[in-house]
Amino acid sequence: MLDTPYPDVIPGPPRSGRLHVPSDILRHHGRERHAIAGCGALLVQIGPGDRIMVVNDEGDQPCEMVAAHPDGRIDAGLLGAAGGGTAAGLVAMLALGDAAGSGLGRLRQGIARRGIDLSRPGALRLFGEGSPAGDSAEFTATGPGWLVVAAPGLPMAPEVQDTATPLTLAIQRANPGQLGKFDLPDPLADPVLDLRVRSATAESYVMKAGDYIQILDVDGRQCTDFQCFDARKLDKGRELALDVTTSRTLMGHAYSMPGLHAKYYDHDWTPLIEVVQDTVGRHDAFAMACSSKYYDDIGYPGHVNCSDNFNRALAPHGITPRPGWMAVNLFFNTAIDDHGVLISDEPWSRPGDYVLFRALTDLVCVSSACPDDTSPANGWYLSDIHVRTYSGQERFSRAIAYRPTPASEPRMTKETAFHAPISARTRHLVEYKGYWLPQVYSSNGTLEEYWACREAAVVLDLSPLRKFEVTGPDAEALMQWVLTRDMKKLSQGQVVYSAMCYDHGGMVDDGTAFRLGRDNFRWIGGDDYGGEWIRGQAEKLGLRAMVRSSTDQMHNLAVQGPNSREILRRMVWTAPHQPTIDELGWFRFTVARLGGPDGAPLVVSRTGYTGELGFEIFCHPKDGAAVYDSVWTHGEDLGLKPMGLAALDMVRIEAGLIFAGYDFSDQTDPFEAGIGFTVPLKSKTDDFIGREALIRRKESPRNKFVGLDVEGNTEVGHGDGIYLGRAQVGVVTSATRSPLLGKTIALARVDVAHAEVGTALEVGKLDGQQKRIPAQVVGLSHYDPKKTRPQS
Question: Which residue has the higher pLDDT, 1 or 204?
Answer without folding.
Answer: 204
